[in-house]
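pasting input
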Amino acid sequence: MKPMDRSYKHRDLFDAGVRALQGFGVVGEAYRCPICCSDYDARAIKKDAAIDYRLTLEHAPPASVGGKVVALTCKKCNNELGSKLDSQISAREQFFRFIDPNRPDPKPFPGKITLSEDPTITTNIQISGKIGSKINVRAGKNNKPSHLSGTREKIAEIYLSQRSFNGKISVPTYDKKRAKLAFLKNAFLCLFAKFGYTYALSQPARYIVQGFLEESDFDVVMLQPIDGYENSILVNEKTGVCFVGFGEFLLVCPWVNASVPKYAEACKNPDSFLGKYDTLYPFEMPIKLEAILDNRLIKKV
Ligand SMILES: [Zn+2]
């Protein structure tokens, strides 16, 4: 019996990638991981694929913030960048949910409560709610039973005596640099999903891939979104820049015809990109499967 594909989605993305790569003169059945450029044959999408020879579904933005599958990447790229970079997009979302009244409440997160009594007792807690509204705390699972009962007794005592007590709560944190590089990676994947290897193998695209792989000090530029294009890809061939909308901001990437040194220089002055999206290829995300991995640039609409 022939080994089964992992899913229809794996098969569709794989086939589209193979066709797109053949458009570049690559002979045979190969799918190229858009990030590390390693080639894989159909064994990589089978249920029995070897653990180090596997193509995986990649979400952009990450599934944890509601992203959809846009491409296949190799397991190594998916895992390594997922834990190093994408995790910081989730952590950033958690932080903004804690401070922003217009976002849903964050998931409960860990903190500590220290009673400034004698003896001082610190208890691990789970915090839910957000700044500016009601915050609930409950005892975490990782407490010594003696601390827990000690804290309970102390709180009861303080409550009955109507005194106040001091407690500390932590705020969710995230790594800003990694979160920005994570958005750059996700923008790259959206551009790959839309424009295929025409984008992914271009020199400007390899420049940004190197940037997020090496975690270099890269000026990632994020602009205010334009009304109606919050979740779109916009391209300006004249200036060699493109914009990927992630709702709350547009991320600026180099287009395929960009001069890398000029783009890098322009990123030092984000205002230089304002108003440069006059030639638009609006494209709503999440990306439709049938539009994925076209090996030609789409016509101007
Ligand atoms: Zn890879």
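fyi Residues 279-301 have pLDDT under 50 and may be disordered.
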